[in-house]
Structures are given as structure tokens and as C-alpha cells.
């Protein structure tokens, strides 16, 4: 089932006009919500932050806002059945919400880590990277290519080879007793989980710094992980690139600082 334009629809088929800009150009904005305890009001769900993300993009593009009450109604109905919601808004304000389950191997990935792959071709760059639009082709292609190498996530880079983010989340690195994350610019999505982690670390007087992830800086990191609202925190064990293979300890004790008192599995 899914929710579209004020209606809960049983089935898997959405009917759109052949000239719909959302279909032709990917002219939509979206956010992916993990709903905790089937409640949009749960503090870890961050429902208000997800709505703010949609609002900021819609305002920037000059698009119409949805009926927020109706959008929340649809999300509440689907959250009874699904722990993960993809909330989409079209340029004319129509809302479209779909649901899915958590990845079946999520706990294993959180605990044991995954392999990553560096997407070094400009083919994999994201369009309007500081917004979540329906045109997510670059990131999708990067993740599909990573899977061909047996990796579970792709790392996107800029034209100078600096690391930006993963195909689905934000990067975290540990060295010298501190956490580091790539500095935000128009090439990086301001992740909701990223903001929550930064705020919590600072509230506990744990040093966290935003900086440019150059190739030299990456060589110094003891731990690399990524975050998003669905998977929470997943560490990397190995990261492959054309020139090198980096290995990391997925059981490093510093990872507890990202997880403790933050996530509920």
C-alpha cells in the first residue's frame, strides 16, 4: 500500500500524467524517515526535521507546499505497517508516501561493518547535491557499481579527489581522540542524522570537527563510518579505490561514542 494525494491506495501502481515533471525530470523532493515505535512524535524519528528539509527545498525551488496535515496523516497510516517511509512532494504540492522494511542484515552491518568503494568517476556526482530531489541517478549508479565489487556502500568525491559523502549518508572519521566529518557545502547533503550526532557529541563535550577530507587526511583516520536516518551508524572495515585499499577496525571503542544513548534498535 502507499499514500498519494490524500488517499491510501492498496497496490503497487501509481498513475501519473505522461507530461508530469516528476516523471520526466525527477522534479520532486523527498526525505526518508525511520519511524521509531510507530510514532512520528518519537524523538529519534525527527519528523519535524524531515518536514523542515522538505520545506527548505520547496522554498528554494519556488514550488508549492503540500497540505502538511494531510501529509502527516498519510505518514501516520503507513507507519503502522512500515518502519521506513519515503515521503515525496511534487512541484505542485502533491504528496506521495511509500513504506518499506529495515534491511534484513542491518544489525550485522552495524556490528561488523561493511566494505566501501570510492566512486572516482564524475559520472557518479549528484545533481543539486545539497537537496534530496527525484534525480538521484548519480548516487544510485555509484551504489550499483560498488555492489559489483562486493561493497555495501559507495563514497562520492569531488573533482580534486576529496571525499564528500556516501551514496546514502554522511561520513564520520576518528583520529587523535576526535571525530571528524566533511564540511558542508553545495556538494554534500546536510543529513538529519548528521546534525543530531553533532549536537549530541557536543552536548557531551566530545570534540567533533568539520573539515575537508583530502586524500592525505583520509590516510590518518583510524575509523571511518557513515550515518543516515535508516541505518543509524555503520562502520567500514575495508574501503577500495583504484590506487589503494584502506582497512579499519569496525570494533574500535570510539564507535561507542556515536552509538551510546543515541539509537534504539
Question: Short description, anyone?
Answer:
The chain is α+β, with helices and mostly antiparallel strands and 265 residues long. Helix content is 27%, strand content 28%.
Description:
- Mean pLDDT is 95; it is low at 261-265.
- The longest helix is centred in the first third of the chain and has 15 residues, at 47-61.
- The relative contact order is 0.14.
- This protein has two domains: 2-100, 2-Layer Sandwich (D-amino Acid Aminotransferase, Chain A, domain 1); 106-259, D-amino Acid Aminotransferase, Chain A, domain 2 (Alpha-Beta Barrel), CATH 3.20.10.
- It has helices at residues 21-24, 47-61, 68-79, 106-112, 137-148, 192-203, 215-219, 255-259, and strands spanning 2-4, 7-9, 28-34, 84-90, 95-100, 114-119, 153-157, 163-166, 170-175, 178-182, 208-211, 223-228, 232-240, 245-247.
- By secondary structure, it is an alpha+beta fold.
- The chain is globular, with a radius of gyration of 19 Å.
- The strands form two sheets. Strands 6, 7, 8, 9, 10, 11, 12, 13 and 14 form a nine-stranded mixed β-sheet that branches. A five-stranded antiparallel β-sheet has the order 2-1-5-4-3, with helices on one face.
- Helices cover 27% and strands 28% of the residues.
Topology overview:
Elements: E1 2-4, E2 7-9, H1 21-24, E3 28-34, H2 47-61, H3 68-79, E4 84-90, E5 95-100, H4 106-112, E6 114-119, H5 137-148, E7 153-157, E8 163-166, E9 170-175, E10 178-182, H6 192-203, E11 208-211, H7 215-219, E12 223-228, E13 232-240, E14 245-247, H8 255-259
Parallel strand pairs: 6-7, 6-13, 10-11
Antiparallel strand pairs: 1-2, 1-5, 3-4, 4-5, 7-8, 9-10, 9-12, 12-13, 13-14
Amino acid at each position: 500500500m502507499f499514500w498519494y494525494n490524500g488517499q491510501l491506495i492498496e497496490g503497487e501502481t501509481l498513475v501519473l500524467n505522461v507530461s508530469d515533471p516528476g516523471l520526466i525530470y525527477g522534479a520532486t523532493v523527498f526525505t526518508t524517515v525511520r519511524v521509531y515505535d510507530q510514532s512520528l512524535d518519537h524523538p529519534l524519528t525527527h519528523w519535524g526535521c524531515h518536514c523542515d528539509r522538505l520545506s527548505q527545498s520547496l522554498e528554494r525551488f519556488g514550488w508549492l507546499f503540500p497540505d502538511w496535515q494531510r501529509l502527516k496523516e498519510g505518514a501516520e497510516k503507513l507507519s503502522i505497517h512500515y518502519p521506513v517511509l519515503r515521503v515525496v512532494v511534487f512541484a505542485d504540492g502533491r504528496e506521495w508516501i511509500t513504506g518499506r522494511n529495515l534491511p534484513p542484515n542491518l544489525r550485522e552491518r552495524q556490528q561488523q561493518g561493511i566494505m566501501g568503494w570510492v566512486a572516482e568517476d564524475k559520472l557518479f556526482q549528484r545533481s543539486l547535491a545539497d537537496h534530496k530531489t527525484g534525480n538521484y541517478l548519480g548516487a544510485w549508479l555509484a551504489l550499483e557499481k560498488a555492489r559489483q565489487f562486493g561493497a555495501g556502500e559507495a563514497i562520492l568525491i569531488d573533482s580534486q579527489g576529496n571525499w564528500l559523502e556516501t551514496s546514502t549518508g554522511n561520513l564520520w572519521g576518528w583520529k587523535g581522540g576526535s571525530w571528524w566529518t566533511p564540511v558542508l557545502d553545495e556538494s554534500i547533503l546536510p543529513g538529519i542524522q548528521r546534525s543530531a550526532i553533532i549536537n549530541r557529541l557536543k552536548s557531551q563535550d566530545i570534540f567533533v570537527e568539520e573539515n575537508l577530507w583530502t586524500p592525505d587526511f583520509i590516510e590518518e583516520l583510524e575509523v571511518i563510518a557513515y550515518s543516515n536516518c535508516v541505518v543509524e551508524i555503520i562502520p567500514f572495515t575495508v574501503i577500495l579505490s583504484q590506487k589503494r585499499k584502506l582497512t579499519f577496525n569496525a570494533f574500535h571503542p570510539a564507535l561507542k561514542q556515536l552509538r551510546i544513548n543515541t539509537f534504539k534498535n
